[in-house]
Protein: Glutathione S-transferase
Amino acid sequence: MTQVETGHYRLFWEKMSGAMVIELLLEEMQIPFERVAIDMAAGAHQSAAYLAVNPTGQVPVLALPSGEVIGETAAIIIALGERHPDKLLVPRPDHPDRATFLRWLIYMAASPYMTFVQFNHPERFLDDPGTHPALIDNARARLRDQFTALDRAIVGAPFFLTDGISALDLYAYMLIEFFGDDPVALAGKPRLARVHGAVAKRSSVARVRQRHGR
Ligand SMILES: N[C@@H](CCC(=O)N[C@@H](CS)C(=O)NCC(=O)O)C(=O)O
Structure:
């Protein structure tokens, strides 16, 4: 695996991908980083050079200043929390909210994020294009239910947890943005709508949205 010590963070990034939550977190933590654009439409994520960085061929990946590379949004968030505990966006191991934080972080990464793959890429699940509309409808219904579960899990106001903004809010914001302007995202989900509204007001979001063409 390619490891180059650079002395700074490098985020392997694509527009409207899971890189958004890592970018928001780095911005909120006020940690400088370099964005390395991966042109997925051109297949750059399947190039030998990128597969040497991330064998899964997925974005995002974060290269630490030491050159060590971390993939998987949840793992990257936990690693950033360990390296920057003073920034308070990831509850520390002894914080009363730590277990709840981990629970919902993993849920977001493992459930709704993965259902968006079915929503956007039905061809990965079934070859017959005739089946794709049903797969997309099913994904949309599952996303609605998964967002409802998230809405019920929110205990704070305006943020997810009671103790101020955390990476959960940034992750929820990204998932809602993945839905585009589909009303299913926030209909009947007042707590999730409040989280989205509160995150949207952050100056980090204005910078990041511009880069994602939102
Ligand atoms: N479990 C991974 C999922 C990452 C993922 O699915 N990324 C998408 C972009 S949003 C990707 O790289 N897709 C390309 C592919 O799977 O070939 C994470 O949480 O980081």
Summary: The first strand starts at residue 9 and ends at 13. Residues 17-18, 45, 57-59, 72-73, 109, 113 surround glutathione (CB under 6 Å). The first helix runs from residue 19 to 28.
